[in-house]
Amino acid sequence: KLHYMNYPDLINTTQQKAKSEFKEKGSLFIGQIFPIQNSEEAENILSETRKKYYDASHNCYAYKLIDREEIKYSDDGEPNGTAGIRILNAINHYRLSNVLIISTRYFGGTKLGVGPLGKAYYNSAVSAIEISSIITRVNFSEILIEFDYDMTSHVHHFLNQSGAKNIKNLFDEIPKIQCHIKPENLQKLIDELTLVSKGRINITILNENIYL
What we know:
By secondary structure, the chain is an alpha+beta fold. It has 2 domains: about 15-130, Ribosomal Protein S5, domain 2; about 140-210, Alpha-Beta Plaits, CATH 3.30.70. It contains 5 helices and 10 strands. It has helices spanning about 40-50, 85-95, 115-130, 150-160, 185-195, and strands spanning about 10-15, 20-25, 25-35, 60-65, 70-75, 100-105, 135-145, 165-170, 175-180, 200-210. The strands form 2 sheets. Strands 1, 7, 8, 9 and 10 form a 5-stranded antiparallel beta sheet that branches. Strands 2-3-6-4-5 form a 5-stranded antiparallel beta sheet, with helices on both faces. A hairpin with a 6-residue loop joins β4 and β5 (about 70-75). It is elongated.
């Protein structure tokens, strides 16, 4: 039987990147939100952003991934607790996952003080979230099914019953199908196909916890 880590069935995330800007006592805050799948993707976006805004005073950020509940944030030289954690607070307030928010500051000559500075970074993150498209994504597993030709109609029948998505027929010496299926439907599919094929079927889990 299959065993799963306790990943949620649904997550809220952003559909695409979005950017907002505002000024606070002369300082310009540029808030950007990005959809991400892993920390490598987040670090690449951070690297590109630092190059783009190389002359900025600070590039503060927070990201949150559903995988291993990974969280990372940085004040990037701002007073401790005024930036990264405030951006993360905004992510948590909207219950988002698989997002990166970067708040870039161009210092305008007037110090804001710790309280107002923290509020400015929080507002920078919130404004980016509010202009982005927040969507709900569903947890799927990606599987590969290998079977005999005479099983083709059975396989398609059970896949349709199980609500499989992105069904791709791969032509090889034997028929193969790659698709996405909800984890809670996977064991039933395996049981049904194994029974009807008398065990002459091979199902491989390629990836888990893909949010579509």
